[in-house]
Design a protein that fits this description.
Helices cover 43% and strands 24% of the residues. The chain has 288 residues and is α/β, with parallel strands linked by helices.
Length: 288
């Protein structure tokens, strides 16, 4: 099945602009407009609402979007399986990842992977738990590298055991401790990383019923680190990512048995495309 029109619709909806979508897909704006008009004639009703600010999906388009994403996902699966049968190492992967994993693991893994499989294109999306889980559910992502989440129903490949640590300004009284208790965070000025993403930090604080004083939020972990260094508050992240940076921040473990399992989530290992199975092999080698 020719899915170019559906891919064009998804790009236009995600970017909110026909011009931007055309640029991403390598079409002229007029060419992409004709393609979308043709798709709307085929289905028999408008899929995009055009305004002076750009484009957005109509109610009917919103209703079809999950099915369209599924169509594009299975179309890629079929294409890659056919390439595998023909002995062609081609394909396309959409990899979701924590920021820490993307910066620490992926560069080396992708370097080795591309040496052997230059025909497989890889797109990396860095985000928090909720965005990554949504990407898996909607088939926008082939796989995700993050910590095991209790709400995920697909397949899981464990890769690395980690733990949460506290980030404390060097001149803070808590910096003198060798390890923190969860209750040490109660009422403390706190910088919340990746708000509304149900992060590992959120789950930890909920588990121990701890309520810091959320003074700031940020979606960038390095910004969070520098804010702690500036004395604006405490924060948390996994120990794995905390090794990357230097500065006037004390990284302290928690005196609890909690551990994080970092790994790869994917809808189905048995039904994974040849490209994804090959990529998983390189991830295992790169982490191990």
């Amino acid at each position: 099945m020719d899915t170019e029109k559906y891919q064009a619709l998804v790009q236009a909806a995600e970017q909110g602009s026909i011009t931007a979508a055309a640029r991403s897909l390598g079409y002229s704006p007029s060419g992409l407009t004709r393609m979308l008009d043709s798709l709307e004639r085929e289905v028999g009703f408008p899929l995009l609402a055009r305004t002076s600010q750009g484009v957005r999906l109509t109610r009917e388009g919103e209703g079809l979007l999950p099915s369209i994403r599924g169509l594009l996902y299975w179309s890629r699966q079929i294409r890659e399986q056919c390439n595998g049968i023909l002995g062609l190492d081609q394909g396309e992967l959409f990899v979701g990842s924590y920021y820490s994993i993307a910066s620490c693991w992926l560069p080396g893994i992708l370097r080795e992977f591309q040496k052997d499989y230059p025909g497989i294109r890889v797109h990396v999306q860095e985000a928090g738990n909720q965005t990554l889980l949504e990407g898996l559910r909607e088939h926008r992502l082939s796989c995700c590298l993050f910590s095991r989440h209790p709400g995920y129903q697909g397949d899981w490949v464990p890769l690395y055991e980690d733990r949460l640590v506290a980030w404390v300004p060097e001149d803070h009284p808590l910096a003198q401790k060798k390890a923190l208790l969860p209750e040490d965070l109660e009422g403390q000025p706190f910088i919340e990383p990746l708000p509304q993403q149900e992060t590992d930090t959120d789950l930890f604080l909920d588990k121990y019923q701890v309520h810091p004083d959320f003074r700031f939020t940020t979606s960038n972990m390095y910004t969070c680190w520098t804010m702690v260094e500036a004395g604006l508050g405490l924060s948390m992240d996994n120990a794995f990512s905390s090794r990357r940076w230097n500065g006037k921040v004390k990284v302290l473990p928690f005196a609890t048995p909690d551990r994080l399992e970092l790994g790869m989530a994917l809808p189905s290992l048995a039904q994974a495309s040849p490209a994804l199975k090959k990529f998983l092999e390189y991830v295992k080698k790169g982490v191990g």
